[in-house]
Known about the structure:
Blueprint: H1 12-18, H2 23-29, H3 37-46, E1 72-75, H4 77-81, H5 88-92, E2 128-132, E3 135-136, E4 151-157, H6 162-165, E5 172-178, E6 184-194, E7 201-212, E8 217-228, E9 244-247, E10 258-261, E11 264-266, E12 274-275, E13 283-285, E14 291-293, E15 296-300, E16 303-307, E17 322-336, E18 339-358, E19 360-368, H7 376-384, E20 389-395, E21 401-421, E22 425-446, H8 448-455, E23 457-459, E24 466-468, H9 492-498, E25 499-524, E26 527-546, H10 548-551, E27 563-584, E28 587-601, E29 605-617, E30 622-633, H11 637-641, E31 645-653, E32 658-667, E33 675-686, E34 694-711, H12 714-722, H13 726-729, E35 732-734, E36 741-768, E37 777-793, E38 798-800, E39 814-824, E40 827-836, E41 839-840, E42 851-852, E43 855-868, E44 872-881, E45 904-912
Parallel strand pairs: 2-5, 32-36
Antiparallel strand pairs: 1-4, 2-3, 4-5, 6-7, 6-45, 7-8, 8-17, 9-10, 11-16, 12-20, 13-14, 15-16, 17-18, 18-21, 19-20, 21-22, 22-25, 23-24, 25-26, 26-27, 27-28, 28-29, 29-30, 30-33, 31-32, 33-34, 34-36, 35-36, 36-37, 37-38, 37-39, 39-40, 40-43, 41-42, 43-44, 44-45
Amino acid sequence: MSSPKPMSHFSPRPCLLALALSVACATQAAAQTAPSPSDEDQTASAEVKSLDTVSVSASRIDRAGFVAPTPTTVIGAVELEQGFRNNIGAVLNDLPVFRPTSSPQTTATNTSTGMTNANLRGLGVPRTLVLLDGRRFVGNGDLNSIPMALVKSVDVVTGGASAAWGSDAVAGVVNIVLDSKFQGLELEGRTGLSERNDNFEYFVSATGGTRFADGRGHIVFSGEFLDNEGIWPKTSRPNVGRWGQISNPNAANGELPFILSPDVVYSNSSRGGLILSGVLAGQTFNPDGTLRPFQFGQLFGANMVGGEGDSWDDITAASTPAKRYALFSRASFDVTDSVRMSADLRYTRMYNHYNWFPDSNRGGLTIQADNAFLSQDIRNRLAAAGETQFTMGRLNHDFAQLTVDFDRNTRQATLALDGVFGDYWRWDAYVSRGDAETSYWFGNFRLARQYANAVDSVLDPVTGQPVCRVTLTDPGNRCVPINLFGEGAPSQEAADYVTGTFWTRQRTRLETAGTSLRGEPFTLPNGPVSIATGIEARRESVVQTVDPRAANGEFAIFNPSAMSGSYTVKEGFLETLVPLVRDVPLLRSLDFNAGARFSEYSTSGGIWSWKLGLTNQITETLRLRATKSRDIRSANLGELYTTSTTLYTNIVDPVTNEGVYVLTNGGGNADLVPETSDTRTIGLVYEPRFAQGLSLSLDYFDIEIDNIITTINGQDMVTRCFNGNTALCDYITRNPADQSIVRIRTPFVNLAKYVTSGFDFEALYNFSGASIGLPGNFRIRGMATYVDTLTVDDGVSVLSEIGSLGSTAGVPRWSGNMSIGYQNGGLGLDLRTRYVHSGYFNARVPLQNNARGSYTYFDMGFQYAVGDRSDGRFTVYGGINNLFDKQPPISSAASFYYDIIGRYYTLGARFRF
């Protein structure tokens, strides 16, 4: 075997083409010209594979100079530092190809608290595969679990990639690339605060790397800590809290039937208890137990506008607080000149405590006339009316303010071998195991039996003291009667008796292994043929245990149940790159790329995925790329096995024409079948010679997914049922008396079809300031996405999600961002803008004030560095996000596209030596 030689670096121009305007490559390429396609192939043919391989995230082929046909965008160091985001997800959510579905702003009131995931094209988090250095990692793709300081770049593959990477890559792949060659030590600290003196956070990190054993070994480590206090409550932002959908009072005048209104509160409960029936209806209890008239606003069923009612928005968070530790280490060692061993260890902990929402009996509490805590005057009035009971609604914040403590711990270890042999072959093998354990403690939840007994109190005929009615027949039951008549009336002893804390613990485990072989087995007249082949296997499992009282169904609001499940996958893949034509007019470099993968799932059997791709250098400055792929996604652990989840949401009911705030319960479904997707892309990359450093790309995408696995949100469930999908009506529980919605179940189901199409645009221009008479260098980068189609077909009706910006699946017609950067020595300045096209709060609801205008946000930042890396480099930096303090549109409680924080200031420092 010939002795290995170091692999030469990418030539900048092909790298830029392959990675769709990579910042890192473009910066190097600004003053250089690209070699001809034939030069690229000759260079690649002459090279010997080294241990430092080249990888393209859109493919498993790692030949130098290979330009993948699938569009790929690289988020480099410049983008990662802009805006001083505290996790990778926050960086990605600013890009137009992502829908910011999951963030601390959107998970403030459910049990996925504080998670940040990637959601390409709004097709759903499970359809975006997230990798860490090309491998799967445990933790449901939570980007909070990756140490930000060690991230070198993020590759975003905006097209189907199941043939290359397996299930979940329907919308694309996010591959996080770590800086495994980091050298030296870097310490960093920063703090941030909003204009409204909240959302305070501080962040510290330490990252280091060094060689050992005469350079044959290298070790890197990174550790960081983040503490964010969140935003309390939702009503601290006027356009966020207390907004709701109500019947439009002017509908009779030709306006639409519903309207978004401020100051929407509950009309069937109060903090001291609101009587809803009988002679005393409309009276509320004072703290001393006396009655007074309740101040009603304008009534709309269970809600009203104005008055003295309450809203959960008065108490719940607008942005969930969180604390996070993240630790990572990697050691690598060249066992021989052709074999390298590496080992990774990763640990993350995310935790905090917060108020969830206050427990309530919104109109569903029956009080007997002989209740021990009613005054004699009230008893007399009931008796005079011949009433033996009344119904009452109460917001129980004084003794049952529900709290959540959550603690997520993620651990993963990976052992890998990489090697080269012969002139053109490379192999690798790895094994990895990870556990993600999430624990929740839910505090102050009502115990159903104890609460019912405590509410039904009487005066003891012997002592004259309040006792539970059941105590008269069962003296040893230890029941403590509760006084609900007046805010603050419940005693601590009674509160302790009727409430409790329960816990859930869930452990998800990923065990995966794989091996691959890449190389050039032979050469055709137009260049070498490259292949990549390999086998992979993984096992994913979940086990959830719950508090025994919850398992027995003892709590009033919800009771999670234990669950367990697992599945295994065995896969084999093959990919090839074949040079077809060289040096022909308009076909200067035509390459064919194809791949196939067979996956055998223990839950759903075998399934194929494949891709076909072409790239062609039409002219020296213009390249064409096109792909067609069949992609697959099998149901994941959560979709198969998740037990009941709980969320409260506003629903407009087309049956009663009323807005309601209703309980929705989600859950898994073991009968799900795999999704299949057909993806087509075609695009152009243009790098004109008349403007060195300028690169432009335009790509068309068309994705059609069959048998989509999804949860239908509560509003969609009600709308689709009303539109004729009677199968979905089974998931809606109504009160037989007035047909009001009591509960909506939203389990995972297979729907018919998901279709999206549109265009992606990118532009990057690096140029010297000397060209315009200024010192330093400039860099301009812009990205935009136009969505032509985004529809969900349930087999009965086809609903469009374009422009529905307040719903859980909607996307804007247009979105984009642009940054302008300036660098002169140690001084760096940047100005960024993000654009969201106009749309609707919810395109499927006939709202009078449904329209939302276009939004443009501006951010700015600076950094100033002193010294150099050899002697130590000190950098101070800062910035302002949402520079003009632009407020979100009305009713933005779960803000997917809009900034609810407002103007935000950041200041930090970094020392590297």
